[in-house]
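Researcher: I'd like a structural prediction for the single chain below. Treat it as a standalone chain; there are no partners to consider.
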Amino acid sequence: MKKILTLFAVVGLIAFSSCEGPEGPPGVPGLPGEDGLIAEVYEVSGVNFTAANDYNPIIPLNPAIFDSDMVVLYRLAGVDNGQDVWKMTPELYYFADGRFNFGYNFNFTKNDVSIYMDGNDLASVESSFRTNQIFRIVIIPGYLTGTNKSANKSDFSDYNAVIEKYNIDDTKIKSIKL
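Model: Treating it as a single chain, here is the predicted structure.
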């Protein structure tokens, strides 16, 4: 009797598992990019570090980013043979005797990026380092950064390597003017 009940259970299970219903409606289309998630770049020009803003300009992000996103910040440090030279922050400068002079650093929330200068006497830093600076904010979805294996990690210090690694179209940079 147990064998017959087991046989009916197996046959019933097979019969019900092969049933299909009608196909459901299509889902909402996703964003363009890899699996609907894209890395993006904002260029912020006219950034000034002054006593009035406590050497800490705040850059709004609109729309807000996700909690899992990664933000990398680069400062335009110059031009070499017609190519922009981007330095990753934190970026530190020292006096000739090795003492710390000043540096750029940042932190971020879902809604903004706070770029700030560190140093003992920021008012004495040459104006070429304090005024009319240009930064690039690279936002990389956490989904893309969480799968890196140790042998395949990005070199975040190299702006061009990051752009290549995450297939960012460098011609579609969004501008923010302060």
